[in-house]
Specification:
single chain, 211 residues, Rossmann fold, globular
């Protein structure tokens, strides 16, 4: 009796996954309403590019919950300065910054990074649940992988509705970053800034220089 039940559950899970992958991006209509944003910042250039991208969004894209690695003090300072300088209306719902354990430090052995990635993934459950975003925006840092995985899992389970947007860095001309390669088949939209990259990965969208 148990085997048929498990088989049916497995079949349902496979069909559900196929349906979600087939309809990625189909519900991407965020215009004309307030959009809660979960923005994942990396270190250095990733954060700078992300903030330039956010600066082009209207005030409808609020509140913004920023996710940074717990060891990334520089990004926290950049975000605070960005939000201080940003012109918003009196009804602005603001922003918050939350931290997540870093999935992998620079030069960290790949074997030990499996454990740190698992820790980061566990931390991601509450971040995605509490922020309940309409839009998840990321542009390449490894920190985004656990968050995107949980957001996709919630969508798979039918308890989340987040649209995952991945904007590949301007420095990626002919090949996707590791994060881009992982998310290529699972994000709702992937923006690339070079024609050569779009030709190699046709499911992406070539949008020219956006940052």
């Amino acid at each position: 009796m148990l085997v048929p039940i498990l088989f049916c559950l497995l079949l349902f899970a496979i069909l559900r996954l196929i349906w979600i992958l087939k309809h990625l991006g189909s519900g991407l209509n965020l215009s004309g309403r307030k959009v809660k944003v979960l923005a994942i910042a990396g270190s250095g250039g990733h954060t700078a590019e992300l903030l330039r991208l956010l600066s082009a969004l209207s005030s409808n894209y609020r509140p913004i919950c920023y996710v940074i690695a717990d060891t990334d003090k520089m990004s926290a300072n950049k975000i605070q300065q960005f939000e201080t300088d940003r012109k918003v209306d009196e009804n602005d719902e603001g922003y918050c910054i939350v931290t997540i354990p870093r999935s992998r430090e620079v030069a960290q052995p790949w074997l030990s990074s499996l454990w740190t990635t698992l820790v980061a993934t566990v931390s991601s459950f509450s971040i995605v649940w509490n922020s309940n975003p309409d839009l998840l925006l990321c542009n390449g840092p490894g920190t985004c992988i656990p968050i995107c995985f949980i957001a996709f899992l919630y969508k798979f389970l039918g308890i989340g509705h987040c649209q995952i947007i991945f904007a590949e860095s301007i420095c990626r001309v002919k090949s996707l970053s590791l994060s881009g390669l992982i998310l290529y088949h699972f994000c709702d939209k992937m923006f690339v800034q070079w024609k050569e990259l779009h030709e190699k990965y046709p499911k992406s969208m070539y949008v020219g220089r956006i940052v």
